[in-house]
Fold this protein.
Amino acid sequence: MFSKEEYDDWKIRMQAHLAAQDDDMWFVIIDGPMKIMKANSAIAITDGAPRCVEKNRHEYTNEDKKKANLDNVAKDILYKTLDKNMFSKLNELLWILIFRNLKNDFTSLR
């Protein structure tokens, strides 16, 4: 169970546990959800054009689906280590971040 006093030990244990589930799991925690990519199939790739583009969900293989779901698996594992008070605090911070990002996105559109 997570506690502020033992954060360093908890982090080491969580990194090991998440990596044991999947090699890419910790990267999902650090970098966010994985983008499933495919080769750019444009007939002629011009200078500066990306060599890979993101796959549409209907193109996902079973392995792609597993990788795309890693962020949900990681959240589930982490949430299970939090007591009710800490979960509430993190949930509140998450909503603050979401609304801040929405505000920034929509004010930049004006």
Remarks:
- The chain is about 60% helix and 5% strand.
- Strands lie at 37-39, 52-54.
- The first helix runs from residue 7 to 21.
- Residues 4-79 form one domain.
